[in-house]
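Hello,

Following up on my earlier ticket. Below are the two sequence lines again, exactly as submitted.
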Amino acid sequence: MTGHGFSISRYTPDQGVWGRLTARDSLVRRMDWPMLASALLLSGLGSLLVWSATRNRTELNNGDPYDYLIKHTVNVGIGLALMAGTVWLGHRTLRGAVPVLYALSLILIGLVLTPLGTTINGSHAWLDVGGFSLQPSEFTKITIILGMAMLLAARVDAGDRMHPDHRTVVQALALAAVPMAIIMLMPDLGSVMVMVVIVLGVLLASGASNRWIIGLMTTGAVGAIAVWQLGILDEYQINRFAAFANPELDPAGVGYNTNQARIAIGSGGLYGTGLFNGTQTTGQFVPEQQTDFVFTVAGEELGFLGGGLIIVLLGVILWRACRIARQTTELYGTIVAAGIIAWFAFQSFENIGMTLGIMPVAGLPLPFVSYGGTSMFAVWIAVGLLQSIKVQRPLSA
Amino acid sequence: MSNIPETGRTSRVTIRLVAIQILVFSLLATLGGRLWFLQIRNGDEYTAEAAGNHVQQVVQPAVRGSILDARGVPLADNETRLVVSASRTELMKMDDDGEAVLARLAKVLGMKPKDVSDKVRLCDAETEQPCWNGSPYQPIPITDEATTQQALAIRERSEDFPGITAEPTAVRRYAAPAGATTSQVLGYLSPVTDEEIKKAENTDSPFLRSDQVGRSGLERSYDEYLRGKAGVTRYEVDKLGRVMGQTQSDPAVAGHNVITSIDARVQAVAEKELEKAMKEARKQFDDNTGRNYEADAGAVVVLESKTGRVVSMASNPDYDPNAWVGGISGKDYAEMTDKESNYPLLNRAIQGQAAPGSIFKVIPTAAAVKAGYDFNGRYPCTSSYSIGNQVFKNFESQDHGAINLGKALEVSCDTVFYRLAHQEHKRDGGMNPKKDAKDWFYKTAHDFGLGKKTGIDLPNEVTGRVPDRQWKKDFWEANKDSWCEKAKDWPEKKDYVTKLSRENCLAGMKLHAYDSVNYSIGQGDTLVTPIQMATIYSAIANGGTLYDPSVGKAVVSPDGKSVEMIEPEPHGKLPTSKKTLQQIDGALADVATAGTAAWRFQGWPQDKIPMHAKTGTAEVYGKQTTSWFATYTEDYTIVMTISQGGTGSGASGPAVRNIYNALYGVDEKGKIDKSKALLPKPQTELPEIREDGSIKSAPVEKPADEEDAAGEEDASGGGGDTGPADGTDGGDAAVDQAGADRAAGDQGAFDQAAAEPDAEADSGQDPAADDHGATDDADQAARREDE
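Thanks for your patience. The regenerated structure is below:
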């Protein structure tokens, strides 16, 4: 604590912006740099992979092979700015704005259901805003985390209770259920799956009663069976699962994606074919390769080393996030961090897992790597939230 | 960590966070493990699958080599047909999958749109023919009979026909120069079978699904040379089949050309004379059976006496080998294989076997000398010879007194040979042979090459049969059950079959005296093929060397740089001394001048071209007699046979004489006109092979035909056959000119109108026409592809 006090004593407002940013206990200095570096590296790798997947696809890039490289880099830049803004504001400030953000995200996903929404790959999950496609459900993941954290941590952080009471849990679940129900209508099953896992992670970290955790898991399982049995899923969604269960079922049809993805990755070997040299990638045998199946480009062209690096970098981010979750002094921060961990971990596992044939196909982007603005913005805001939790000073200090 | 207790953090939350962390890292570890499994453990498997994914093969069929006669005249070559094909990959890129283009194409070709679209659809389990069974990356032929007009329409409006090509393509053609179909010798092609593709899969020359394989004749025996090697280009393609790059390209290698020893003109004469002789025989009344001769089949072989090379080989009935081109129709196939047609696919010169009758007698003559009888000894030629109560009559029961073996050959005296054979049979122990039985008469037949294949370079030759003691035994073993079964009717039934069955059942395993006696004049169970007899007679002519008869003379690589000669290979020597051979030779000359064949060689210039001959009339149980005629000069050996045709000299004599007349330019009166001789000496030189590998073809005249020469020449000279220089005998210049004109008529118009930058074709100086066309057609096709 003495060091802390010492640095404060040296603090002078005349140091200027740079000085303030780089001062020993400044925001920048206290940020989690391993996480930031990993996220940046992933984004950079993502740019290359997206570039490789799109540079020959004139029907996508309008004849400009650098089109997607530039767009992806711009997205990363915007993401970085959003992260910086989030850190600047701080998650505590955002805590006060949660009701507004929640309402806003409800409106956005509600708009998707209006004629303003567009359908991409069977999923009516997009908003067409002035030429840009926005996927509001990505932001909804954040507002669910923030909203649930606010509700669940309120009484605990105030020191009223050790754990959230049942009533609060019910409220928090209701808060998550409303946007999830809307997204289910789109239907965007992948996002709903991620949100279910987020809710689980949030509840776990909040210290809610074990009964809730077990109950929720049971409900999830029963719900999944019900959804299957009642035929709520579209045919393409059922087929994806069927193809997952038996990839040889129809290699030219529903099993095609997973088959080609596995061939692409499998043919990469240890070192890969080299960037831009993948025949599967150049031949466009894998669909959605710049977005959901971007990992196949890494697998084929960069091999086991490249693919492994992506997994390791994601691991670093999650490791740092877990540290932040454990070290933060208030439950609110812990819950937010846990929600983000659940989100990143599940989405990464599902995304890479489906390309490796160990998970069913779902339309989910790989954090930082896949092309897609909304998703990129959302994950960088999430990084901002984690950094904000990291740099926070204890309320008691 | 010191600040944690300050918070409301409970142990429950901490434990759960640790659990989350463990869970997260096990998920990531799972991904890493799976990645390792796919890329490192099973990487090779997926690499192979990826390679199969993006590489497609396009096959350019090789142009099959030509089969040429001794002077370069094509007997089998390729003609250019206009083939219209559609590229499926191009069509599938269109919004309507090319439907509009195919509809337009159907209109131009005068086909139904449905027929056209059916042809380009891919075959699968549910699709009925027609459908495309090959690679979807291969151009799919719509028709191979497009007219120049249609091809022009397609080429000129190429923007209306994207993905459609109209290309001249090589298709097999059996040209029948001078009217010589040479059908059974050439053989035919038919598509390769699945089994063959599988069998040849891992060899040096694997088959393609589109390949044609030689099924008989030269097409089969020289298939490996003729076939060439198809070109394969491997393209990298993307998911939609768009070509991204070319990985590997093996150009097509045209097949080798095979030059044969056949002379198309002589072949034409032989075929026509055989046909004529058979027609003539059918007009003759057979006293024995009380009806006209059937003359159901026949064959004639012309060999070079000194080499055993086949100058011509005809078998009747024959067929048009062009019926097989482009797939034989069910109707044609049925006609060629049913009993009614008497199996025209059989090459009776090598696959027809019959008792030889008296042309066999040279063998017992040689055998008798071997056995110690003096050639010039005196042997009674009585009118009949008896063994026990069996009487064997001389032909027409003539008595010539005591004569030597030469005279016995000349007058074809049976009883001389009966007596000698019977004596030898007795000397060897009769039905129960002594241990050291010499069996000279049988051994000599084997030594002359009977009872086994001559080794001619044509497939499916048959062996014939020497009915010696061993064969009798084997044959009895195989048939005793059915014989003894039939013999049970005895003595209730006393017909010939029952009687014979009984005899065979009881004693058929033994060689009887009457077997030997019958055998000595080429009757009974003896079977020979015309090619065997021709080989034997040519050996007598050349001083005793038995050559494997050969049709192929040289194999020439498509660029003409490698010429592999096929040298005549002997398979043995006649087991006869020079002296005896000369004596036999002299006797056979006497046959032609004074003996049984003399009436057929009246006026022959024997002093200039010594002729040797032996006639044969073989009896066949239940059938009319087989006519045999074996002849030779210093240069040529001709053996002819007509099944159920009558006597040797009677039925076959005129035809053989006419073939000799044509070869040497001899007219009816025996005058030799060298200018009319088709081949007074065997063709020893190969035809000229040009720099570019094309082979110069000699002009083919219509052979001077004694009876209806003028009329026929006019009728067929103009456009009947595909010989390059029809009806011209004015030397090479005229030939070339005629050829060029033909080229212009056939192809030039198309090329010029289509504005092909093909200088050689346009200039009209391409000497294509007097070459065998295959190479040139192929070259042109190749050039077009290059463009």
